[in-house]
């Protein structure tokens, strides 16, 4: 599925954060088993995040998150880095043999104008599109925040097509 590089990078960050919260929550049932629902709510307000309890649904979901995050970190980030490198080579100074010119430290040499173009390209490069292979989770856990649902949609949560949205609204 076509996605912006920025969306793919945001997915990886959100997946890491969700998985990290789930890892931390493994010991929670033993620690807070005697707390009342009000005390649990109080803790959630204090930490600013919902306390998560791992179950079979979240294990399957985490598997899907890890699978897609690995694809992004291996393929998509390399593709993004190649685009940035190609742009730098295109804009750098060249010697008589049309080879990229390098300074004493081995860095590419740019004119002031080409450096401005390079910087502008790098600022906007995350908006370029890339192909990310989806892997839909068999079950979506109920402990996702709205922001996580939005970020994970199209990666591990199936996106609702416009025609499907209309049908849901009309029913």
Model description:
This protein has 171 residues and is mainly α. The protein has one domain. It has helices at residues 5-25, 28-32, 37-47, 56-91, 112-124, 146-152, 162-170, and strands spanning 2-4, 129-131. It has a two-stranded antiparallel ribbon with strand order 1-2. α1 (5-25) runs antiparallel to α4 (56-91) and α4 (56-91) runs antiparallel to α5 (112-124). The longest helix has 36 residues, at 56-91. The radius of gyration is 22 Å and the shape is elongated. The chain starts with a strand and ends with a helix.
List the helices and strands and how they pair.
Blueprint: E1 2-4, H1 5-25, H2 28-32, H3 37-47, H4 56-91, H5 112-124, E2 129-131, H6 146-152, H7 162-170
Helix pairs in contact: 1-4, 4-5
Jot down its keywords:
mainly alpha, 171 residues, 7 helices, 2 strands, elongated
Please mark out the parts with pLDDT under 50 across 5 or more consecutive residues, or reply none. none
**What is the first-to-last residue Cα distance?**
29 Å
Order of helices and strands: EHHHHHEHH
- Taken together, the total number of domains comes to 1
Radius of gyration: 22 Å
Tally of individual helices = 7
């Amino acid at each position: 599925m076509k996605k912006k590089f920025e969306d793919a990078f945001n997915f990886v960050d959100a997946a890491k954060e969700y998985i990290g919260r789930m890892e931390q929550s493994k010991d929670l049932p033993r620690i807070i088993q005697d707390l009342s629902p009000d005390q649990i709510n109080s803790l959630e307000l204090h930490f600013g995040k919902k306390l998560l309890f791992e179950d079979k649904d979240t294990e399957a979901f985490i598997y899907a998150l890890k699978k897609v995050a690995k694809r992004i970190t291996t393929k998509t980030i390399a593709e993004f880095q190649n685009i940035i490198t190609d742009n730098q080579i295109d804009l750098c100074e060249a010697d008589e043999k049309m080879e990229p010119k390098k300074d004493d430290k081995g860095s590419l040499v740019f004119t002031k104008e080409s450096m401005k173009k390079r910087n502008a390209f790098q600022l906007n490069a995350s908006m370029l599109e890339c192909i990310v292979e989806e892997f839909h989770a068999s079950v979506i856990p109920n402990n996702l925040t709205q922001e996580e649902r939005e970020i994970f949609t199209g990666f591990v949560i199936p996106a609702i097509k416009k025609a499907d949205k209309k049908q849901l609204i009309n029913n």
